[in-house]
Design goal:
The complex is a heterodimer. By secondary structure, chain A is mainly alpha-helical. Chain A is built from six helices and no strands. Chain B is an all-alpha fold. The chains are: A mainly alpha, B mainly alpha.
């Protein structure tokens, strides 16, 4: 039962990602070609609400359902890790038109071939794990 | 009501709902970062015995696996019960650009000529599905997060590393779209 809430939040996420068309390969192309405001509007408005929300949660020390204060950890600073990893991610994002959230959502949209994309992404993550010690971080 | 919800949702409705999803996950005791599930699946498959990076308590991440199962169900509901009867309203400039590289716009949410099992057995399809997925999985873990973890969660918490990652996402995406697409297609 403790997982039911996560299932319901996931359902809301899958619905909003589909209805906003953020899972669309075409919309991602439109975004990287700067031919529509749509994707920038989605990310920008999510961020505008998110910044205010996180600041509020921190200031008021809002508690989660379990009664613990919701905490945020700062990320360790590095340039190569985020920039190079980000570029590799971006190459894949534009090619497949899907970041991880949309991959799962598209599976639900009936694109069963996304099983291949997800399996490849798992393999990519596994390969990163293998090479982790030799990559700049 | 169903008819109302079946229309495409405007960006100014969708963005705040995505922020709401982030809040609900924090409130439930989790956090908003989808790509972590890829690492969890490696651990569930036993990768922890070979590679230390995957040797962690994956059972503590089951909630996130349940979340993405929900995303699959949500995708199903939105594409059946709430299906938009109209073709995707893609900008005409994008339709023309894609036409020039040989991808006809079919009005679906993703081009069926690419995202089908027939396509998987062609070189181009294999490249998009397998190489595209691989780069996303490799890059997201190297960068320590994806669009949800960095662009939404990280930037909402004003993290400079997330800003660097998002700049990287765009450099990669622009290189692929403007320099590599003309070579691939």
């Amino acid at each position: 039962m403790k997982f039911l809430k996560y299932l319901l939040i996931g359902i809301l996420f899958g619905i909003v990602m589909t209805k906003s068309e953020a899972i669309s390969w075409y919309r991602i192309q439109e975004m990287f070609r700067f031919q529509s405001f749509h994707m920038y509007g989605i990310i920008g408005s999510a961020l505008a609400v998110g910044v205010v929300m996180v600041a509020y949660l921190k200031r008021k020390e809002v508690k989660s359902l379990d009664g613990d204060i919701i905490t945020f950890t700062d990320k360790n600073f590095s340039i190569p890790r985020y920039l190079l990893g980000g570029i590799v991610f971006g190459l894949g994002w534009a090619l497949s038109g899907a970041c991880p959230g949309p991959m799962y959502t598209l599976l639900g949209n009936g694109f069963s071939v996304f099983l291949v994309v997800i399996a490849s992404a798992v393999l990519g993550t596994f390969t990163y794990g293998l090479l982790r010690d030799v990559l700049p971080h | 009501m169903i008819e109302f919800l079946s229309q495409p949702w405007a960006w100014y409705v969708s963005g705040p709902i995505i922020a709401l999803v982030m809040f609900l996950l924090l409130w439930a005791g989790g956090n908003f970062g989808v790509s972590s599930t890829l690492r969890t699946m490696c651990s569930m498959g036993g990768a922890g015995s070979k590679v230390a990076f995957f040797n962690f308590d994956w059972k503590s991440q089951i909630w996130n696996i349940v979340f993405v199962l929900g995303a699959i169900i949500g995708g199903f509901i939105a594409s059946t019960l709430l299906k938009n009867p109209e073709p995707l309203a893609l900008s005409s400039a994008t339709v023309e650009d894609l036409q020039q590289i040989g991808i006809g716009f079919d009005g679906a949410i993703a081009p069926l000529s690419i995202f089908s099992w027939e396509s998987f057995f062609s070189i181009k399809g294999f490249l998009i599905l397998v190489v595209g997925g691989f780069l996303v999985g490799f890059g997201t873990r190297w960068a320590g997060g994806c669009t949800s973890g960095h662009a939404i969660s990280g930037l909402s918490n004003l993290q400079i590393p997330s800003l660097i990652a998002v700049i990287g996402f765009f450099i990669g995406g622009l290189i692929m779209t403007h320099l590599l697409f003309p070579l691939i297609f």
